[in-house]
Amino acid sequence: MTRDKPTALTLAQITIVNLSAGLLIIWCMIAPELDGDLEMGRTRLTIWATTFLLIPALGLWLIRTAGQTVANLAYLFWTGAWVLFVLHAYWAIFIIFDGVADTFVQQGTLIAGGNFLLLGVWTLDVLMIWLLPARMQSFWFQLIARLLAFLIFALTLVILRGGAIQILGFVFAGTLVGAALVRAIVQVPAKVTET
């Protein structure tokens, strides 16, 4: 059985992810009210929140063959992180910057281009996961989307940022590199039956 598509979702699985994403969205919208820079605060916190959800999304995806529950949670967290990334992109493009063209001017072609590429690939991946049948799922596209997300987040948070967000970047990168190494060393067996 393939683990390239969520199936047999349970209320508990959906609740865990929706509650996590919902609380993070509330935090992103309310916490900046206590600070002086409302719009920039929301933009920054939405990237933090995306990172918080990407850690379990990518980590669980690495071991999705352990069972359908693990695979389901990986796809749900991936989708929740995407929702927060879309919120971040909206806030950055249309609130902080004055549209797509100004985003390229302000961020430069390399950074803005990478962010728009990630937004497009991630959106396509989420749509494919939820709308296409399992036989049409592509492991390679999922792998590329996740590697792109990992590389852009790790490089941006670790190299281009400083302070607390850089620490989160090191936690993000370190956790996922460690998970990938464990996955490479200890093959996670696919379960024959679900309990």
From TrEMBL:
This is Uncharacterized protein. The keyword Transmembrane applies. It comes from the Bacteria. Keywords: Membrane, Transmembrane, Transmembrane helix. It comes from Roseibium album. The chain crosses the membrane at residues 12-33, 45-63, 75-97, 109-133, 139-160, 167-186. The keyword Transmembrane applies.
